[in-house]
Amino acid sequence: MSRLKQGDVVLFTGKNHVRAIGEVGAIFRNPDAGNAMWPPQSTHGPYLNVYSLISFQETEIPYTDLRKLTDTPDSKGGDNYMGARLYDNDRAARILDGLLIETATELAATELAATELAAAGVHVAPLWDQGAVVRAEAHNTNSATGTSQARTFVADRAEARLVVDYKNFLRASGDRRSQQRLKSIVGFSDIYLLPDTPGSGAAEIVEAKSSPAHGKVREALAQLLDYVIHATAEVDALTALFEGAPSARDIHWLGNYGIRCAFRDGQGGFATIAPPESRVSAMKAVWQPTGPVGAL
């Protein structure tokens, strides 16, 4: 408990599901406060550890989905998540990214950083705030100052599974790019692919949708264009990812904006339809009219 800090994510488990997700607010150890809220246990005495939540969202995520993110090569499987435990480092990052969790704390920290840069006279672009690459250490922020709504956002389960499967497919296909998420004041991208070394691929933003219906295609288009302007690098590809193939009209429509379309191929993999390279080149100036804004 002494290792918890404000902004850490808490998963509440029971009945074979993650029943709710929240963010730690105040945290302290005080038996009098514990006694005032809960009757002491006859065998263990008063509850000493007390923490509040600055956001809370009910969920229904089955343990089978969570185990894919928490199991290690030497795990025996069948974890029922009894009792309190603390995940950190790579495993914590896998859980947050695998469940596509966006926290109010992180969004507030991003807004605060952009405000402080502006106050210091640092203007990297005339119209757009900076983004940042989300890595494991970015999930432990120390303050929740800002104007973001105090709410943890957990993505649609089908979309989260789609993202996990697509990332695994890319790795299995030999894709050597780093799989991150782009964090900005407008939200988090589902996947932010960055080349670790020259020749290992192009920078790419991927947005996933659980349905190929036109409304979801339109959402993916809007979010990709919203995220790319905050990218920390020059982006060479935008990809809309779907459970199934959108209509030919919608695929062509995405292509007009230089956006690739990826979807499950029905054989355990993914198919990709890319627009002509000439269209991508023409649209890159629209995606990032001022160039990449740089990392926080």
Task: Write a compact overview of the structure shown.
With 296 residues, this protein is of the alpha+beta class. The protein contains eight helices and 13 strands. It folds into two domains: 9-102, no CATH class; 105-133 and 157-287, Trna Endonuclease, Chain: A, domain 1 (3-Layer(aba) Sandwich).
Written account of the structure:
With about 300 residues, the chain is α+β, with helices and mostly antiparallel strands. The protein is about 30% helix and about 25% strand. The strands form 3 sheets. Strands 5, 7, 8, 9, 10, 11, 12 and 13 form an 8-stranded mixed beta sheet that branches. A 3-stranded antiparallel beta sheet has the order 1-2-3. Strands 4-6 form a two-stranded antiparallel sheet. The longest helix has 16 residues, at about 105-120.
Summarize the topology.
Layout: E1 9-14, E2 17-29, H1 31-37, E3 49-62, H2 63-70, H3 89-98, E4 101-102, H4 104-119, E5 132-134, E6 153-154, H5 157-172, E7 178-184, E8 187-188, E9 191-194, E10 204-209, H6 214-228, E11 237-242, H7 248-256, E12 259-264, E13 270-273, H8 277-287
Parallel strand pairs: 10-11, 11-12
Antiparallel strand pairs: 1-2, 2-3, 4-6, 5-7, 7-8, 7-9, 9-10, 12-13
